Amino acid sequence: GNSVTQMEGPVTLSEEAFLTINCTYTATGYPSLFWYVQYPGEGLQLLLKATKADDKGSNKGFEATYRKETTSFHLEKGSVQVSDSAVYFCALIAGGTSYGKLTFGQGTILTVHP
Amino acid sequence: EAQVTQNPRYLITVTGKKLTVTCSQNMNHEYMSWYRQDPGLGLRQIYYSMNVEVTDKGDVPEGYKVSRKEKRNFPLILESPSPNQTSLYFCASRIDPLSNTEAFFGQGTRLTVV
Question: If we measure between CA atoms, which residue out of B24, B59, B23, B67 comes closest to residue B42?
């Protein structure tokens, strides 16, 4: 079946540090890949997405590139801010019998200190 | 404003007392689903609905029921809640199950069963 594996957290950084959150996946066919962010007390919001190999999704200074050869979709940001503190989820939608289901990774808690 | 609305946001109940969590979307989306979020497990799909009167089980359906009598509403029913259903629940909607479009999430319902 489909699965998503994220790096273990939590991740604690100082403001302006470089961020990488690793994400790898297993899926049938050619999935679409997503990063969702959950701020404290809120629901999930789409951060960025990529629908085919070598696509780069970007938003709010975050980037992730769909790497089919390594089945990865790592999230990066060059300079994090305190306001980036949140839980980040990597997710995919695959074809076949998944009927449009989002398959999520475990989530990575990011805390950014001033 | 496009949104998914869940109620209640917080609920404490006792074992065996039937409860319903409501979910409503105002985007005319065909596809709706329920997830539960547990630490270290990410989000797991409980039930989904491809359209009115069309529902099916997700990965963790035991102990839950749903209905889809109208396109905008997708309530989650716990007929006899148990402590292992203590969790954070999210309702989500998408335009349709076949496209790789963004899913919109409600703000979540934190349920505690004692």
Answer: B59
Q: Give dist(CA B29, CA B73) in Å, integer.
A: 10
Strands B31-38 and B87-94: antiparallel
Q: What are phi and psi of B84, to 5 degrees?
A: -75, 0
Strand B4-7, strand B42-51: pairing:
unpaired
Interface of B with A (CB under 8 A): 4, 31, 33, 35, 37, 40-45, 48, 50, 56, 58, 90, 92, 94, 96-98, 100, 102-103, 105-108
CA atoms within 13 A on the CB side of A111: 5
Distances (CA, A) of B69 to B52, B72, B89: 6, 9, 21
pLDDT number for residue B48:
94
A68 touches A50 (CB < 8 A):
no
Chain B residue with the nearest C-alpha to that of A6: B42
> From CA B46, how far away is CA B34, in angstroms rounded?
5
Nearest CB among B42, B48, B108 relative to A107 is that of B42
Mean pLDDT of A46-61: 95
CB contact under 8 A, B97 and A99: yes
Q: Are A37 and A59 in contact (CB under 8 A)?
A: no
Give the residue, A94 or B5, on which the prediction is more confident: B5
Residue type, A107: G
Neighbouring CB atoms inside 10 A of B15's CB total 11
